[in-house]
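Sequence, structure tokens reproduced for reference:
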Amino acid sequence: MNNIFSIHTVRFFLLILAQVILFNHINFLGYVNPYLYILFIAFFPVKNNRIIIILLSFLLGLTIDLFSDTGGIHAAASVFIAYIRPVILKSSFGTIYEHQTIKFSSAEFGAKLTYFTLLTVLHHIILFSLEIFSISKIILILQKTLFSSIFTILLSITITIIFSRKTK
């Protein structure tokens, strides 16, 4: 239990550090900006208390907001995907989620891709809607959501493949 706690603590701080130092400075064509800190929410253990993931997601988003000077939009988007995560897990993994036996390293690629895609797109829609906050700029919101989601998903899958443990 202590080992798992330390792994998630290290992941929490490493993702914040990577987001603040590296990924916040990528802004390709004004639309593409990856938000890889949501990997913490995606990989948080399913069996843990739901209140814990919502609280940690708030702290994660708030920390990103403090470093980015964005006024709480990352915290709101993070809390939203943490809250809706059980629905996304059930729709992506089906009965594996119901039996609480999800292992991301051994899950099939299609289920992982669906899971990452749903989490990322929902996060980005909330994030960019709050950032722009204008219904007249819905096209801009959708463009930023689409392009940033594609880039975030590609980087998330790549990082997941690189850092996943091989099981035999």
In short: Residues 138-163 form the longest helix (26 residues). The mean pLDDT is 87.
